[in-house]
Design goal:
Helix content is 35%, strand content 15%. The protein has 259 residues and is of the alpha/beta class. It has one domain (23-257): Rossmann fold (3-Layer(aba) Sandwich), CATH 3.40.50.150. It has an eight-stranded mixed beta sheet, with helices on both faces. The relative contact order is 0.17.
């Protein structure tokens, strides 16, 4: 068993860097309407209308620098710019975490364009990356997935598939993450990135499966830990008593390490 990790942290409450109702946020939404997939943007708007903005944030904030315990280089490539991709500050934090963890085996819930997949693989150059996303028939038939139904199936994994050095180390899984069988990876995964459907049911299930797959000392990371995604916050809050998750200042990244 690995000793429980401890972190130097601030006592300041986490503050999402862009308030949902800010003019900047509205500008982003207006700009997004010009994208080639307006149905995707409309789905985001319908989902946002049902979001609650009262979720408590009970985890401490740390600077990214406090998580770096040795000098390291990260590999970073700019994404396609598609709406919904991991923004640059979060991508940098993800790369740092992977580079520090040096995982032999990683797992990602939610492939989307494959930007996260690519950067996990780039920063764990000797590691295998498993990534999971919906099949096309599931994307259009499962209830409660308006956001996901607007994603073109052809975009899933397209970024990592364009990099031969990476794609040979990626194993793409297909299916509803709630039904994913973790038995073949139980206790074997060193780094897990949770960035699939953001409803409470999915995030809770993905988190439970991440813990099942996690090796001793594994790092589990959630994306979109923000007021805009209270169900992610709710699931993370449930981990506080046992695993002491932390969030990285200036990002929507939160992580915990298994003992």
């Amino acid at each position: 068993m690995c000793p429980q990790n401890t972190f130097a942290c601030s006592s300041l409450p986490y503050a999402w860097s862009m308030a949902y109702g800010s003019s900047r946020r509205r500008d982003v939404v207006r700009s997004a309407k010009s994208l080639v997939n307006p149905d995707f943007v409309r789905a985001v708007g319908r989902t946002a209308a049902n979001w609650s903005f009262t979720a408590a944030v009970p985890v401490p904030v740390v600077a990214a620098e406090s998580l770096v315990d040795e000098a390291c280089e990260i590999r970073l490539e700019v994404g396609s710019g598609q709406f919904g991709e991991t923004p640059l500050p979060d991508l940098v934090a993800l790369c740092l975490l992977v580079a520090q963890a040096k995982p032999a085996v990683s797992f990602e819930f939610g492939t989307f364009t494959g930007l996260g997949t690519l950067h996990i693989a780039l920063n764990a150059p000797m590691g295998i990356v498993h990534t999971l996303d919906l099949q096309e028939v599931e994307r259009t038939s499962l209830p409660g997935l308006e956001w996901e139904t607007s994603i073109e199936q052809s975009t899933v994994g397209s970024i990592y598939l364009a990099h031969d050095e990476v794609s040979v180390r990626v194993q793409q899984h297909w299916g509803d993450s709630r039904q994913f069988d973790t038995s073949i990876l139980s206790g074997k995964v060193d780094f897990i990135f949770i960035d699939a459907a953001h409803s409470y049911e999915y995030v809770k299930s993905d988190t439970a499966k991440a813990i099942e797959m996690g090796a001793p000392g594994a790092t589990i990371v959630w994306h979109d830990y923000s007021r805009a995604c209270p169900d992610v916050q709710r699931v993370v809050a449930e981990q506080v008593p046992k695993y002491a998750p932390i969030t990285i200042a200036g990002t929507s990244i939160v992580l915990m390490r298994l003992p």
